[in-house]
Amino acid sequence: MSGLESMDELIADPDTGALVGVFDPAVDTPSSVAVCAVAAASMRDPLDIRPMYSTVDPGCLDSLLTHGGTTVSVNTTFEFEGYELTIDSEGLIRLEQAKTAAPQRSSAATDR
Length: 112
Known about the structure:
With 112 residues, the chain is an alpha+beta fold. The protein has helices at residues 30-41, 58-65, 107-110, and strands at residues 11-12, 19-22, 75-80, 83-88, 92-97.
C-alpha cells in the first residue's frame, strides 16, 4: 500500500464486507496507517485526504495504540472520511462504511 512499509493491502472480509489490513506498529504509526487505508479504500491519493486532526488527534491516536512496553492490547474506533475505522495496538485495522454521516459545521459558527 502506498506510503506504508508494513501493510501491503486491504482484504475484504467475506462475511461483513469490511476491509481488513495488518500492519507492524513498530514500523508504521496507526495514524499513517489510517490515512493510507482510507485513501486505498476510497481510491484516492493519501495527500487528497482531509487532515486527520479534524476528526482525531493523530499524536494521541499513536500514543494510545503504541505499546510502550506493556502487553495490554488496546483498540479504538472512530469515523473518518466516510468510514468507521477500528485500529488495535496489535496491528489490525478494519474499515467499514460509516453508518452515520459526519456532522457538518455551521457556517455561522466558523465565520465569527
